[in-house]
Amino acid sequence: MRLPNLSRRRLLQGGLALSTVSLLPAWPARMQAGALETAAFKLTAAAARVPLAGADYPETEVWSYNGGLPGPEIRVRQGDRVAVDVTNRLSEPTTVHWHGIRIANAMDGVPGLTQAPIAPGERFHYAFDVPDAGTFWYHSHVNSSEQVGRGLSGPLIVEEHEAPEVDRDVTWVLDDWRLTAEAAIAGGFDHPMDMSHAGRLGNTVTVNGRVREEFAVRRGERLRLRLINVANARVFALNFQGHTPWIVALDGQPVEPHPAEAGRVVLGPAMRADLVIDMTGAPGERFEIVDDFYARQRYRLIDLAYAAQPLREEALEAPPAALPANPLAEPDLTDAGRHRVVFTGGMMGGMAGGMTADGWLDARALFRKGKFWAVNEIVGEGGRLPPLFSLTEGRSYVFELVNDSAWHHPIHLHGMSFRLLSRNGEPVWRQPWMDTVLLAPQEKAEVAFVADNPGDWMFHCHIPAHMKGGMTAVIRVREKERA
Ligand code: C2O
Ligand code: CU
Predict the structure, then answer these.
(1) Cβ(97) to ligand 1 under 6 A?
(2) 347: CB partners within 8 A, 6+ apart
(3) Taking the mean position of all CA atoms in its chain, how far away is CA 28?
(4) Is any ligand 1 atom within 6 A of the Cβ of residue 99?
(5) What backbone torsions phi and psi does residue 148 show, to the nearest 5 degrees?
């Protein structure tokens, strides 16, 4: 089968005839264990074959959870205890990280920091509480470029006790794949070219694990659309032609409902947005959703395709209600500890060098070792270096994040969410809570949080090729002595 150029077809013309988005596989199991609500799940990480690129292409061998793409949607209620039995049927070790959940440290899924990796054939039992309602996700945290890049991720939805009224609650997991002409996943993970530039960008974009043509809607419907960017490196900027999406949450945390700036929803790797969209089109109409983050690579992600039958004649247009707030501690800015974090490296970055576990190396020596990035001049190497900062439990902190490089970086903190206070010195509207902040080249941002979750937490760029290349650190929250 000869497929001259998948990327051209998909990214520039988007001409594959494919199925409509279907709902993600639902889970039957919900157990009641005494007074405590425990939601129990099983995940098996293994190779599988899926029709990722559609019927015109061979099936793609991926690594996935429970044989599907994305991994099954774990859907629980706020305050639940979540129990997940993970079995590793890969030929290499793995772990599962519950991205954005303010979790107990031992359940955070970071190899060498919070747990030993799960060896092939072994199991690990995760059990944790979910304090916040919202849109989260889970993914491997071992050999992430390859394991996440081959498909080891899935959505984790925590429902509000009183969810806002919508006609449908839909999850879209957005992913980006580098496929060969035969729709196989291209090898060469952690190539120095990717590590030192934008990361492993792909050539094929999927919605819920398939290249999609359209999503069926009806006039008058109000949709909650949960977007999750699980891609290794691709930033999405979605334009909803003819529609005005309201943003109601970012990274799982409620924000005051507001129309997306210039109608465009921007999501870096690992980031989420919950949208409320009113279907104001007419029966039979079609509208494109276009991603134009990369100026020379504008493409149609999917169409909204209106059914002949409306749900209601007049579309709702009143702003959606705000989501109920999550129980986050408000940082005290008057008495906060302050730290500056400078990210350097990459091509055209002019990095002098960095400190490694084996001492200071200049940039050339670092590049030869496959290291391209540093955080405060320290080249991250898994658990080999002491924590970047040691914070006191209960105290508020402001981090000034400085991207002194020519590349975008989605910077993620484990274990705690932070408020985004400012960008380049300008206060950010409503200072939203996030767990991942996308820094543009040379951008500065300030974030604030209460260090209320003791443990050693990863703090890293969520582009795994950058992380492996040194853009990673550990933040320690020292437990307060309890009387
Ligand atoms: Cu999505 Cu270190 O994590
Ligand atoms: Cu990065």
Answers:
(1) yes
(2) 196, 197, 406
(3) 25
(4) yes
(5) -70, -40
What's residue 1's pLDDT? 29
Q: Are 127 and 107 in contact (CB under 8 A)?
A: yes
List strand residue ranges (DSSP E) for 198-357, in order: 204-207, 214-217, 222-229, 236-240, 246-250, 253-259, 264-267, 272-278, 286-291, 299-306, 337-345, 353-356
The reported pLDDT for the residue numbered 483 is 59
pLDDT digits 0-9 by tens, 59-68: 999 999 999 9
C-beta neighbour count of 113 within 10 angstroms: 18
What single-letter amino acid sits at 107?
Answer: M
Q: Is 52 helix (H, G, I), strand (E, B) or coil?
A: coil
pLDDT, tens only, 380-412 = 987 677 899 999 999 999 999 999 999 999 999
Phi-psi region of 146 (alpha: psi -120 to 50; beta: other; left: phi over 0): alpha
What's the token pair of residue 93? Answer: 């070790």
Distance from residue 151's CA to the centre of ligand 1 (Å): 15
Is any ligand 1 atom within 6 A of the Cβ of residue 412?
A: yes
